UniProtKB/TrEMBL annotation:
<keyword id="KW-0732">Signal</keyword>
<dbReference type="GO" id="GO:0030313">
    <property type="term" value="C:cell envelope"/>
</dbReference>
<dbReference type="GO" id="GO:0043190">
    <property type="term" value="C:ATP-binding cassette (ABC) transporter complex"/>
</dbReference>
<dbReference type="GO" id="GO:0015833">
    <property type="term" value="P:peptide transport"/>
</dbReference>
<dbReference type="InterPro" id="IPR039424">
    <property type="entry name" value="SBP_5"/>
</dbReference>
<keyword id="KW-0813">Transport</keyword>
<dbReference type="GO" id="GO:1904680">
    <property type="term" value="F:peptide transmembrane transporter activity"/>
</dbReference>
<dbReference type="InterPro" id="IPR030678">
    <property type="entry name" value="Peptide/Ni-bd"/>
</dbReference>
<dbReference type="InterPro" id="IPR000914">
    <property type="entry name" value="SBP_5_dom"/>
</dbReference>
<dbReference type="Pfam" id="PF00496">
    <property type="entry name" value="SBP_bac_5"/>
</dbReference>
<feature type="domain" description="Solute-binding protein family 5">
    <location>
        <begin position="81"/>
        <end position="444"/>
    </location>
</feature>
<dbReference type="GO" id="GO:0042597">
    <property type="term" value="C:periplasmic space"/>
</dbReference>
<protein>
    <submittedName>
        <fullName>Peptide ABC transporter substrate-binding protein</fullName>
    </submittedName>
</protein>
<comment type="similarity">
    <text>Belongs to the bacterial solute-binding protein 5 family.</text>
</comment>
């Protein structure tokens, strides 16, 4: 029942990499423009904006903009899923396949087109059938979408998936005007957006975008006069612009030294520091077809030898969180299964797992680690990992580092070219399944041959486990949250036992805001709404 081909997963890995890379990469995106003399909220970033077409947008900045330009069927209030364009949570059929969703009336698109079930069906079908970067989120799951009344939508799935309403809150699954997008046919519209959200797109350029409040918005109106997204050519320029008050909010792309400096000055400058547990994770994918990693004992020694605290401090100066499960800590079901089983680079644990092997100075463990040369954090992490392993294992290990650019590595993963490789993953929607199924599932394979087609093959791991496949199916059918939590925890334990993927760290989301800004808060997906933002008078 697995829902997407390996090539689709590999493509998602690439975009996940590009999103995480924003934390350190200096992106050239046109010149830096001075702040305009108006009451708009200015948000600074170095992230490049490739497209605003929700059927093709898969980067973090685009997701943030779509969250505020558009509306989805559902959104979040705290950690609770609540209706947005829907008026209630779905009515689900007994077999878990059919979702009926009642919709709001009196909603209009930015071009004046009325919103209804047919418009929502058009938007979801366009997303699903366009072949854009995120299309597989729906294409692998949805059988049919129908407008069965003016204000009633029906979606039929191919297989049960209890987290489907959470998927419908994905920023790209917003309603778009059939008038504007229908006229475009099969073409993407990267520089425009016509939705139903609290803002309309007023200007789009390589230097940034400008959003204006939508006068006919059905919901709560923005508390500000508009939003300017200003794209800077380097993290140094963004850092200086925030320090001098040229931007109200700085998001992403600051390096660890800059983040640490701004945090240190926050007490005296009264800057606001908003942090959240990131939803981007970095893992070590282990090729179970290549020696010595075809031997469980060798993988267990490696698992015991990883010192995540050392990685987090030396690579990110403490601005990343050690990760002990495939599921990041922002999910309540996350369990530190690798720390519990293997410790965190503890010498006693290393010695314990070495007892089951022939690893010695005469027969050292050969570690050939690949990383992406164009991702600065990976370059430093590979060096730190090498030094850490050599420090803790001594002459019982030989570490060789090799690198290639991201495109080359992702292109060659399924060929089994890499024994060990550092990779990133960025979750699409708020559910732990999004961090387990994409790693551990397999469409076709056997215990003897490993995974021949499916998610784990796309990662270059080739992990195959009938138990994992069964647990994934069961967790997707289980509507009771407590029983489902048990199944998701069993999947985490299963990966720790098999050591198919080694979780290393998860990014932290850090925003900086000027003292007078009010209303800035991260949501469960580590994004934030623009509408509540406003500036208090300077004497407050």
């Amino acid at each position: 029942m697995m829902y997407r081909a390996g090539v689709s997963v590999a493509r998602r890995l690439l975009w996940g990499c590009l999103v995480l890379l924003l934390g350190l990469l200096l992106v050239a995106c046109g010149g830096d423009v001075p702040r305009q003399g108006d009451d708009s909220i200015v948000i600074g970033t170095t992230a490049r904006l490739r497209t605003l077409d929700p059927a093709d947008a898969y980067e973090n900045l685009a997701g943030l903009l779509l969250l505020n330009l558009g509306d989805r069927l559902y959104t979040y209030e705290g950690q609770d899923l609540i209706p947005q364009l829907a008026t209630a949570l779905p009515e689900v059929s007994e077999d878990g396949l059919t979702y009926r969703i009642p919709l709001r009336r009196g909603v209009y698109f930015h071009d004046g087109t009325p919103f209804n079930a047919a418009a929502m069906a058009f938007s979801l079908e366009r997303f699903m059938k366009s072949g854009g970067q995120p299309a597989s989120l729906l294409a692998g799951r949805v059988q049919e979408i129908r407008a069965i009344a003016e204000d009633l939508l029906e979606i039929r799935l191919k297989e049960p998936f209890v987290a489907f309403p959470h998927l419908l809150a994905f920023s790209g699954l917003c309603a778009v005007s059939p008038t504007a997008y229908g006229a475009a046919g099969d073409r993407f519209l990267p520089t425009q957006f016509v939705g139903t959200g609290p803002y309309r797109l007023a200007a789009y350029s390589t230097d940034g975008v400008r959003l204006e409040p939508f006068a006919d918005y059905w919901g709560t109106k923005p508390k500000n006069a508009g939003i300017r997204i200003q794209i800077f050519s380097s993290s140094a320029n963004l850092y200086n612009a925030f320090r001098t008050g040229a931007v109200d909010v700085a998001i992403g792309a600051l390096d660890p030294n800059q983040i640490r400096a701004l945090k240190a000055q926050a007490a005296t400058k009264h800057w606001q520091v908003i942090t959240g547990a990131g939803n981007a994770v970095t893992v070590l994918s282990i090729n179970l077809r290549q020696p010595p990693w075809d031997q469980l004992a060798a993988r267990q020694v490696l698992a015991a030898s990883i010192n995540r605290q050392r990685l987090a401090e030396r690579v990110f100066l403490g601005e990343a969180e050690p990760l002990y499960s495939l599921v990041p800590s922002l999910f309540p079901v996350s369990e530190p299964v690798f720390r519990d089983r293997y410790g965190d680079g503890d010498s006693s644990q290393i010695d314990h797992w070495l007892q089951n092997t022939t690893i010695s100075p005469e027969q050292p463990l050969v570690v050939n680690l690949w990383y992406r040369a164009n991702v600065p954090s990976n370059v430093l992490a590979a060096t730190v990992l090498k030094a850490s392993l050599e420090r803790d294992l001594g002459d019982r290990v030989q570490v060789q580092l090799d690198s290639a650019d991201s495109a080359t590595i992702y292109r060659n993963l399924e060929s089994g070219a890499y024994p060990l490789v550092l990779l990133d993953w960025y979750g699409d929607f708020y559910d732990a399944d999004n961090y387990l199924e994409p790693f551990l599932s397999c469409d076709r394979g056997s215990v003897e041959t490993g995974c021949e087609s499916g998610a784990s093959a796309a990662w270059g791991s080739f992990f195959y486990s009938p138990a994992a496949n069964d647990l994934i199916v069961a967790s997707r059918r289980e509507a009771d949250s407590q029983r489902r939590g048990v199944l998701l925890r069993q999947l985490q334990e299963l990966n720790a036992e098999a050591v198919a993927f080694l979780p290393l760290w998860q990014s932290e989301t850090t925003l900086f805001a000027q003292p007078q800004l009010r209303g800035l808060a991260l949501d469960v997906n580590q994004l934030f709404a623009f509408a509540p933002l406003q500036k208090a008078p300077k004497d407050q």
